[in-house]
Amino acid sequence: DQEAEQLYSGIQSNNLGVKAESLKKLASLSQDITFAQEFINRNGFRQIFSIVEEGEEALGSAGSLPAGEILAHTLKAFMELMEHDFLSWETLSSAFIKKVVSYVNTSAVDASIQQLSLSILENMVPTSRHLFELVKAEVTLDCLLTHLQATDTQLQLKAMALLTALLAAVLGQSGVWGWRTSQSLFASQDMMEYLREKNIRQFIHKSIIHGSAAPGAEMSHHLYVLQAAGLGLCERRMRTPMDPYSQEQRELLQALRLAAFEADGEVLAGGPGPERRRSLCAQQFRKLGFTNNSNPAEDLCRVPPGLLALDTMVYFCRHTPDAYRRFVLENSSREDKHECPFARSSIQLTLILCELLHVGEPCSETAQDFYPMFFGQDHFFEELFCICIQLVNKTWKEMRATQEDFDKVLQVVREQISRTLSLKPTSLELFKSRVNALNYSEILRLRQTERLHQEETLALPVLELRERLKPELLELVRQQRLLHLCQGSLFRKISTRRRQDKLWYCRLSPNHKVLHYGDVEEGVSAPPIESLPEKIPVADMKMLLVGKECLHTREKSSGKQNKDVLELAFSIVYDVEEYCLHFIAPTRYEFCLWTDGQNLLLGREMSSERAQTDLEVLLSMELKLRLLDLENISIPDAPPPVPKPPSNLNFCYNFS
Description:
Blueprint: H1 2-10, H2 16-29, H3 33-41, H4 44-54, H5 56-59, H6 67-82, H7 94-105, H8 111-124, H9 129-138, H10 141-148, H11 153-170, H12 182-197, H13 200-209, H14 217-231, H15 235-238, H16 247-261, H17 274-287, H18 307-319, H19 321-332, H20 342-356, H21 380-398, H22 406-422, H23 428-437, H24 440-454, H25 460-487, E1 489-493, E2 502-508, E3 514-520, E4 534-537, E5 541-546, H26 563-568, E6 569-574, E7 579-584, H27 588-601, H28 609-626
Antiparallel strand pairs: 1-2, 2-3, 3-4, 5-6, 6-7
Organism: Dryobates pubescens (Downy woodpecker)
GO biological process, one term: actin filament organization
Domain ELMO: 248-421
């Protein structure tokens, strides 16, 4: 109370030294809400208004403090007092506002005063329509752009803050006067067009984003708002359905058709009757991928994406004509069920890009999620579409998709784009290389990895448990292989003429020391071991041959190899003379089990793909069973610390 009274008197003093020191102290103490309340109760605001309206000239210099610094302290105190919401911004006089604006528009003013003045105006803009219109009329965009290109980073930041506040207000996003209207969209379009003419995008891209220091959190937010305003220019077209009776829009559709088929000899310049022309047009629109080929305008009546989809298709057609014709003609030459529909894909892709880039959504007050590549391109949305529509065709071929897989392909494309955008590529060229590298197989691998992370099967303690379980479960797989050999399998003999007319059976003795085999009659499934006359001691077995290594996989007549036989053939080399017992497994599953079993008998590791698959299945099941009790409990990466041992071990329990 005493401090407020003393400072209130000090700022009214005719002694400039006392006045300057009081204002300096006021700027510091105004952050305290109790002091601020006491100072305002004494009508302190009126004195501050008076000092600001009089300006630098009336202050002169006071001792060690020049007039500019005194004024800066006054503006700082004003900002701090307004933070407490004791006074409405709408109560400010026109003279006060115009004086603050003059500090922004005048270059011969101290930078600290300009920064504070820009902050004051930025706070005014969202509070009311009246203040917004006043600031917009008084502060010129040219002046703001001059400050934005200053070397002083703080002045640059404050200028960007006021610019984005004006843009947000133009779009009606400040929350004071409601949702955006068509008039506000046109106004923002005019502002963005003016900024484009002044090459502000190039300056931001070169000097702010790729400057000596990375943009801070506050600047990142302003760049996000500027990006949202730029992308917001697509909203009007996105929310406008196609008018089937609009001559201009119908001409754009015809331009798409002509550009795709004019060099293909399918366009009729005149001559044939109207029925023939109508039939050919419908056929070509079907090849372009329109669902309603007789009236393609109906495909563009859905909003969103509305006319924005037509704009992107026309842009792709005109700016990359070779890629456009290649896309259309390549797919029109495929089977009907395998062709990737250009128009349908373009409409859905435009909608996906609008959703991922949040086109038409209100700006967040805290978001900092801007894309550096947005400021590196004039027609960002359209250029991004040109890259992504070619990605759709590439992914379609990788997935070997049919018409029924359309939604699945677009989901994968959405994921490819979303993952690449999250990497924040600095240019569209870098985006293109990264999104093309993220092919369908890579997406499947990432999904599998994320699923394992979600199930916590990749947590460090779980991986450690997995390694401990592996030897025990590997032994279980080994036992299963040897048990299968003991049960035996039925094989067919293949003659030189490839006639599969004779059957023979092979099985391992229960003590795993002898391999029994012999011919059997048709219909015998599991003959007793005593009925198999031939024997090979396991101790005499030398090696296992598979595939091309086997002699019985070659035909004597032609010398060619049968691919099916190659995949199922294996031989056991035994005895000193190195005789061979040749096998052709009935299935790939039997081949894996028998080759694994033979390797185990030879003292080697199991080498088939089935062995690894079976081990993974057992490990997965065992881990899930053991982790059932830990459901919804996060597993720490590191074990809890082991407590220190007690200071002495002199303790016992008295059982009596």
